[in-house]
Amino acid sequence: MKIKRHVRHLMVLVFMMVISSCALFPTSSEKDSLPIASSSSETFSSANESSEELSTSEVPSSESEVQSSEPEPSSKELSSSEEPSISVELEMKRSTYTNSVYFYDFPDPSGVYDPIQRMWFLYATGGQYLRSSDGVTWGQKGWVFGHLPDWGTKGAGLWAPDVQYINGQYVMYYSLSTWGDPNPGIGYATAPKPNGPWTDHGKLFLSQEIGVNNSIDANAFVDPNTNRVYLVWGSMRGNYLVELTRDGLGFKAGSVEQAALSKIRVAGLDTVHGWDAETYEAAYIRYWDGYYYLFLSMGTCCEGLSSTYKVVVGRALSPYGPYYDDTGTDMRNRSAGKLVLQKNDTFVGTGHNSVIDDVNGEPWIYYHAYHVDKQSARVLLQDKLLFDENGWPYVEGFTPSTTEQIGPYYHSVVE
């Protein structure tokens, strides 16, 4: 009996050694599935791909209903909430472009880059959005909602959506307003990936609740130093900032009444002043090298070739400010701010910007303007954001580019 037990023990040991050897030394098919290291080689494309063949439906059929035109995802697209099952070899490329990059109405652009799908997404007034795999060719237009939210003033449209990645999901802040609206407000929605599906959570606040007249043009900012989340908003009176919860879905102060007491004015005049084109709207915050930069648009936005819109910037050592321009002027004044970009002979009414980094970490500014040959639409433009010797951001020549440019770095799968 003892001999039989010893034989069984030996058989078990031999079996375990065989299993271990299989785990340590993969078969040829297993070796083929191991991750492949990414490449950082750079190639350039000389072709300037047209963006004018992208969509036949440019506006919602009505203000109360927006038909969804979300295209079916390709087999290569991955959900932002999913990790790729295998690694692929990537290379960095750049395409060329000439402004405008989307010659249809696309006002108030804001967006994100999704590293999972390797796609840029831009959103605009009306709830429309575009996407791009190379950062310059914009197409596959869709709509974030099937129906416009109706919690605001009767007949209000969806203006200036701002999308940010916050705490594991994408959060959209949008305005509901009409021209001359006495009580516009800010709403919010969430999605697992930039192309939806979006779940609308309704109102975050109305102007009269938060104590800020003309509460539109919201932008969320996640501080890279602290992961604290802030919301900045306001239009042509005062621009205010309040801290949100870490998920971006509520006020850190707890309630809208408490948020109304804790908000901070970071630019423009006190909200009791009337509409003033020498104050600001479209606030947008970024952080670089020790400073918080507050981009703002000033002037008239929507008067065709008579528009005086331009982008200015101030900076501060804290998200709460105070923000100053390059002359030391406090942004809580009229006509302050260092110039970032303004009109030229081709594009007028340049403004309402956002900034997105390419895959090489270089910032690009996206904004709208009127083309002199198309006064009925605010078309989409983009340019590389540069920095002067004192760390101030600007666009080359302080005006939109009008000649062929090399675009952002993007990732392409090695064939």
Number of E-state strands: 24
Number of helical elements: 4
Q: Structural class, from helix and strand content?
A: mainly beta
Q: Mean of residue pLDDT?
A: 85
CATH superfamily: Glycosyl hydrolase domain, family 43
**Radius of gyration (Å):** 25 Å
| Strand percentage | 35-45%
Q: Based on Cα principal axes, name the global outline.
A: globular
Helix content: under 10%
Q: What is the CATH C-level name?
A: Mainly Beta
First and last CA, distance: 63 Å
Largest sheet: 4 strands, antiparallel
Counting structural domains, the number is 1
Strand order of the largest sheet: 3-4-5-6
| CATH second-level architecture | 5 Propeller
Keywords:
4-stranded antiparallel β-sheet, single chain, disordered N terminus, mainly beta, 24 strands
